[in-house]
Amino acid sequence: MASANTSTTAEHLIWKGGVQPMKVGYGKLMMWIFLLSDTFTFSALLVAYGLVRYSFPTFEGLRKSFEFSNAWWPIPERVFASVPFLHGINAPLVFVGIMTFILIMSSVTMVLAVEAGHRRDKADVEKYMLWTILGGIAFLSSQAWEWSHFIHGSEEGLALADGTKIFGANLVRNEYGPAAFADFFFFITGFHGTHVFSGVVLNVLIFYNTANGVYEKRGHYDMIEKVGLYWHFVDLVWVFVFTFFYLV
Amino acid sequence: MAQHTESGEKLPSQTKEIWRTFWILLGITALEFVIAFTVDADLYKWTKVGIFIILTLVKAYYIVGIFMHLKHEVKSLIWTVVLPCMFVAWLVVALIVEGGYIGWERLFFIGK
């Protein structure tokens, strides 16, 4: 097979038909197509969020007089204003900022692992894959804290007109705003978190294979590139979630 | 493309562009925080929203273009990915506007 191929393209990148559509290997192209379909799924969530959010009234008064109520959509920076170990301190969006930094950083170590794979430097691939896995686990832990804090809520809670009080959030009602607010928080960050989790699993798998010399024997580190695409996609989705759920 | 080092010697790493992209992404995120806490949200709400959306798209460009390497792929692959996303962007705008109407109807016919 290799003798028929006179181009400079590496043999493992040629498809079985003898050509190479779009100048990428089969696996990488299919990863792109999969990510495109995943984009549609996440878009469906963001589109639904946008529609429901703008069907609810916004708070009419000035920002500094904002109060939580089930009658209007909350201002996100008032909801997400806590950081672990700093109880009672108002730090709007700081923790989400740290989570964003963790994910961008792990994206960088992933692309460094891909670059090391191009050089077929096994030790470097291992090193950067470990950092990437660590970043993924750190992000998931942060999200677990964020969810726990969101579910348990504040000490004051929200007083309703009939005198009862709501603390924290579930799928039926919450102390921050309309039920749909917490529902979208759970679904969007939960669906993203599931992606991060499966990304970590894939990262562990390819780290294991790298350490066992599977890719060294195969002669190329293309698998790192394919999983890398998935990992960057997870980072990309977070960039959009950060803007549209937390910032705007 | 994989460079073959049969002799086993180490090739120099090429990480300049990666770290440059990292600093750009970090800088943009920091800028978003500065804007979020210094610009008055009561007066400039929609200006802020506009700036955030533009900065998000810039970040997306760097992640997809450099980290996912799409910038250096062939044109047909670039458009395969970008074109469907442009239709999605249209859907987002269309349904947010629609959401506004739903809220208006609810306010007038149900009164809450």
UniProtKB/TrEMBL annotation, chain A:
Compartment annotation: Cell membrane
Superkingdom of origin organism: Bacteria
Bilayer topology annotation: Multi-pass membrane protein
Keyword Transmembrane among UniProt keywords: yes
Heme-copper oxidase subunit III family profile domain residues: 28-248
SUPFAM superfamilies given in the database record: Cytochrome c oxidase subunit III-like
Primary localization: membrane
Record keywords: Cell membrane, Membrane, Transmembrane, Transmembrane helix
Keyword Transmembrane helix listed: yes
Membrane-traversing stretches: 29-52, 93-116, 128-145, 184-208, 229-247
PANTHER family linked: CYTOCHROME BO(3) UBIQUINOL OXIDASE SUBUNIT 3, CYTOCHROME C OXIDASE SUBUNIT III
Record family assignment: Belongs to the cytochrome c oxidase subunit 3 family.
Protein name: Cytochrome bo(3) ubiquinol oxidase subunit 3
Automatic annotation (TrEMBL), chain B:
Presence of keyword Chaperone: no
Alphabetic keyword roster: Cell membrane, Membrane, Transmembrane, Transmembrane helix
Organism: Emticicia aquatica
Cell location: Cell membrane
Membrane topology: Multi-pass membrane protein
Residue ranges of the TM segments: 21-39, 51-70, 77-97
Protein name: Cytochrome C oxidase subunit IV
